[in-house]
Write a structure and sequence with these properties.
This protein is an alpha/beta fold. Helices cover 42% and strands 19% of the residues. Strands 1, 2, 3, 4, 5, 6, 7 and 8 form an 8-stranded mixed β-sheet that branches. Helix 2 packs parallel to helix 5 and helix 7 packs antiparallel against helix 10. The longest helix has 21 residues. It is globular and about 60 Å long.
């Protein structure tokens, strides 16, 4: 794959965070990565008859790997054109036999020909400008007895302001700063079929370096880039992204959620919370 625009260090630095993710084909994974996907698949009874939607899919990791794991079919969407380009590239490169499509779209107005058995939002719901509007749109697209699959962050203690400001600069959004109970309020209209609360363990410098080098080496092959200065700019930026996520981990936890939508129950709560 060749790059249409002339790539310079300035070009790399000026890309939005989401477009940078797409440009370097970062597998922008949900909290828990493969472990969370396995829990979702098992506890939502996902199989080859399931038809799923991945919301804000970036480069397609969650839906692609769920399709490999279970044989499900489905769709994914994201606002970033470069991320969707890479989602389709990754499907052809790493999972050519799955029945999945990826498209550039706005979640609030996303159109589909059929309703979904599962909708995967991961940690993305809180980062929509209007999370409740996106949640309601998901409900509209779910089949009766369908599942919403989430893995939201929450904080166990206040994140220092200097870290929040740094994260805003790196990601272009404010990281989650609210408590577990505040996060769970977003999902209170659905039945909690499965929940697993998890700690986050910071990565070592060696682990960060290995991940960043692997990703940028591949990006250079995909984009036909052999300029060391540009390589360094891409490596520096992705390391900054990973380092930022790493520095937030001591303040965060995440919950793996499998939530069921039933017309006969929604939006009421008839089961006690424990």
């Amino acid at each position: 794959m060749s790059t249409q625009k002339k790539v310079t260090t300035d070009f790399i630095q000026k890309l939005s965070y989401t477009d940078f993710v797409g440009f370097v084909n970062q597998w922008n994974v949900l909290p828990g990565a493969y472990s969370t996907l396995s829990k979702w698949a098992i506890h939502s009874r996902m199989n080859k008859n399931s038809h799923i939607l991945e919301v804000a899919c970036t480069t397609g990791f969650s839906s692609r790997e769920l399709a490999v794991l279970t044989g499900c079919s489905g769709e994914g969407f994201d606002l970033s054109k470069s991320s969707i380009e890479m989602a389709n590239y990754n499907k052809e490169q790493y999972a050519p036999n799955i029945n999945f499509s990826y498209k550039v779209a706005d979640g609030y107005s996303y159109k589909t020909q059929r309703k979904f058995t599962h909708i995967a939002v991961g940690a993305s719901l809180q980062f929509f400008p209007d999370p409740e509007k996106m949640f309601n749109r998901c409900i509209e697209m779910l089949k009766d007895d369908g599942y919403l699959l989430a893995a939201p962050f929450y904080v166990t203690r206040p994140i220092p302001n200097h870290l929040i400001r740094r994260a805003q600069k790196v990601f272009g959004i404010t990281p989650t700063t609210v408590s577990y109970k505040e996060i769970m309020r977003s999902y209170s209209k659905l039945e909690i079929i499965y929940e697993d609360r998890n700690n986050l363990v910071p990565e070592t410098k060696e682990e960060l370096d290995y991940y960043c080098k692997s990703t940028i080496d591949r990006a250079c092959k995909i984009r036909n880039i052999n300029n060391q200065e540009i390589y360094n700019a891409m490596y520096k930026r992705i390391f900054e992204v990973k380092k930022m996520s790493n520095d937030l981990r001591p303040y965060q936890r995440y919950s793996v959620l499998v939530l069921r939508y039933r017309k006969s129950v929604y939006p009421n709560c008839f089961v006690e919370l424990f």
